[in-house]
């Protein structure tokens, strides 16, 4: 009897719990016990939380470690084109047969009991990681930290907290202090933590939690610094100064993310060559990614337009995109935007209004939480950005390319939209 493909199994797993998100660790502890605790057999874990920059920072740490010959497992979310992107085993995406078999094993051990999709897939990742030798395991928090499924690892080698800002308030709290408290939930007694530069309100919470756990902190802006100087990345800590090429991931904010990654790598005794590889070899799609092939890219190229893609979706993400656009060569910019109805769209669009001439709003196809295109357009007009709607991304790009030849077109607003674009654009 042929093994069902992973998409079929993943669809079944979505039905095990009435809520998509239900932050708790009890259900996962039960399942991991039934699986003989794979989370206790992982290669040394580097656990990464934060609001923005988690994925980019993880990608740079991974690039640096692999440049030194290390075998690295990595667990990230969400995926963009295929679920397999979430589980990287010793440097390679998990194969279809291995994914299907591991998911079915977890499903059988769970015996039909309530379990969220993320909890089940986290258990599958841990099981796969525990069976393949590696030197490190990089775990990206899915949501929050304290009650996130990845937080069942009792003694990581190192924790990392990237910049904390307002997002997911329905789950994490309405204030920066409350959100920082949830992120600081990944701190463990005696385990060092690299902390990116933070707003004072967030840093106070992180420092207080670390003091109670005797967790040594290495804080950006205090114990280490990173900045751009004459187009180069300069990093300095107590070990000395590094003068490196700029991060290959575009945007001024990546200098800060690179600093966080470099601080982590220096803690792990990485060489200068590994540090350079971290910033020059990292790959992280849908973060100001230039699209150069596929049907959409051809439409843009035929009109002399640049086509870009970004999945930032909260106010800090909007500011990062705006800063990136401001630092790029001057070119008339038009947005194609699709958002979820759970996001602060006004906060996201406000900084972008200064950098874009227009916005074309789309609904995200087959996404139940999509914000209707007309509401996205209304939000853009509210921040004084001219806005229209389009039936889909292809229509929007084609209309903009025809109306504004030679312009820059940026598809943005949601990772779900970015994933659809990457899938459909090959």
TrEMBL record:
<comment type="pathway">
    <text>Cofactor biosynthesis; tetrahydrofolylpolyglutamate biosynthesis.</text>
</comment>
<dbReference type="InterPro" id="IPR018109">
    <property type="entry name" value="Folylpolyglutamate_synth_CS"/>
</dbReference>
<dbReference type="InterPro" id="IPR004101">
    <property type="entry name" value="Mur_ligase_C"/>
</dbReference>
<keyword id="KW-0289">Folate biosynthesis</keyword>
<comment type="similarity">
    <text>Belongs to the folylpolyglutamate synthase family.</text>
</comment>
<dbReference type="InterPro" id="IPR036615">
    <property type="entry name" value="Mur_ligase_C_dom_sf"/>
</dbReference>
<dbReference type="Pfam" id="PF08245">
    <property type="entry name" value="Mur_ligase_M"/>
</dbReference>
<keyword id="KW-0479">Metal-binding</keyword>
<dbReference type="InterPro" id="IPR013221">
    <property type="entry name" value="Mur_ligase_cen"/>
</dbReference>
<keyword id="KW-0067">ATP-binding</keyword>
<dbReference type="GO" id="GO:0016874">
    <property type="term" value="F:ligase activity"/>
</dbReference>
<dbReference type="InterPro" id="IPR036565">
    <property type="entry name" value="Mur-like_cat_sf"/>
</dbReference>
<feature type="domain" description="Mur ligase central">
    <location>
        <begin position="48"/>
        <end position="201"/>
    </location>
</feature>
<keyword id="KW-0547">Nucleotide-binding</keyword>
<keyword id="KW-0436">Ligase</keyword>
<comment type="pathway">
    <text>Cofactor biosynthesis; tetrahydrofolate biosynthesis; 7,8-dihydrofolate from 2-amino-4-hydroxy-6-hydroxymethyl-7,8-dihydropteridine diphosphate and 4-aminobenzoate: step 2/2.</text>
</comment>
<dbReference type="InterPro" id="IPR001645">
    <property type="entry name" value="Folylpolyglutamate_synth"/>
</dbReference>
<comment type="function">
    <text>Functions in two distinct reactions of the de novo folate biosynthetic pathway. Catalyzes the addition of a glutamate residue to dihydropteroate (7,8-dihydropteroate or H2Pte) to form dihydrofolate (7,8-dihydrofolate monoglutamate or H2Pte-Glu). Also catalyzes successive additions of L-glutamate to tetrahydrofolate or 10-formyltetrahydrofolate or 5,10-methylenetetrahydrofolate, leading to folylpolyglutamate derivatives.</text>
</comment>
<protein>
    <recommendedName>
        <fullName>Dihydrofolate synthase/folylpolyglutamate synthase</fullName>
        <ecNumber>6.3.2.12</ecNumber>
        <ecNumber>6.3.2.17</ecNumber>
    </recommendedName>
</protein>
<dbReference type="Pfam" id="PF02875">
    <property type="entry name" value="Mur_ligase_C"/>
</dbReference>
<feature type="domain" description="Mur ligase C-terminal">
    <location>
        <begin position="302"/>
        <end position="414"/>
    </location>
</feature>
<keyword id="KW-0460">Magnesium</keyword>
């Amino acid at each position: 009897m042929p093994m069902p493909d992973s998409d079929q199994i993943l669809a079944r797993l979505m039905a095990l719990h009435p809520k998509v998100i239900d932050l708790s660790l009890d259900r996962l502890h039960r399942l991991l016990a039934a699986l003989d605790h794979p989370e206790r057999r992982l290669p040394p874990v580097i656990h990464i939380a934060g609001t923005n920059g988690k994925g980019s920072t993880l990608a740079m740490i991974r690039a640096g470690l692999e440049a030194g010959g290390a075998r690295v497992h990595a667990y990230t979310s969400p995926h963009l084109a295929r679920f397999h992107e979430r589980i990287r085993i010793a440097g390679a995406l998990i194969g279809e047969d291995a994914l299907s078999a591991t998911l079915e094993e977890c499903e059988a051990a769970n015996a039909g009991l309530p379990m969220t999709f993320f909890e089940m897939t986290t258990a599958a990742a841990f099981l796969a990681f525990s069976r393949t030798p590696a030197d490190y395991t990089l775990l990206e928090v899915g949501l929050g930290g304290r009650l996130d499924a990845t937080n069942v690892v009792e003694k990581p080698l190192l924790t990392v907290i990237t910049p904390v800002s307002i997002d997911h308030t329905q789950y994490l709290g309405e204030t920066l202090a409350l959100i920082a408290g949830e992120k600081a939930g990944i701190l463990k007694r005696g385990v060092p933590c690299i902390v990116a530069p933070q707003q004072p309100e967030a840093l106070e919470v992180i420092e207080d939690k670390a003091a109670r756990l005797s967790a040594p902190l290495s804080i950006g802006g205090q114990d280490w610094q990173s900045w751009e100087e004459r187009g180069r990345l300069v990093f300095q800590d107590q070990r000395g100064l590094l003068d490196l090429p700029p991060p290959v991931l575009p945007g001024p904010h990546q200098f800060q993310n690179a600093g966080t990654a470099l601080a982590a790598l220096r803690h792990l005794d990485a060489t200068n060559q590994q540090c350079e590889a971290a910033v020059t070899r990292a790959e992280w799609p849908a973060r100001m990614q230039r699209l150069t092939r596929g049907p959409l890219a051809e439409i843009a190229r035929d009109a002399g337009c640049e086509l870009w893609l970004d999945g930032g979706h909260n106010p800090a993400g909007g500011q990062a995109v705006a800063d990136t656009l401001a630092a790029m060569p001057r070119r008339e910019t038009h947005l194609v935007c699709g958002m979820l109805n759970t996001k602060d769209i006004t906060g996201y669009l406000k900084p972008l209004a200064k950098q874009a001439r227009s916005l074309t709003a789309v609904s995200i196809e087959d996404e139940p939480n999509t914000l209707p295109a007309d509401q996205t357009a209304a939000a853009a007009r509210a921040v004084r950005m001219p806005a229209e709607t389009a039936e889909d991304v292809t229509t929007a790009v084609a209309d903009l390319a025809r109306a504004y030849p030679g312009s820059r077109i940026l598809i943005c607003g949601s990772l779900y939209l970015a994933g659809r674009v990457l899938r459909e654009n090959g």
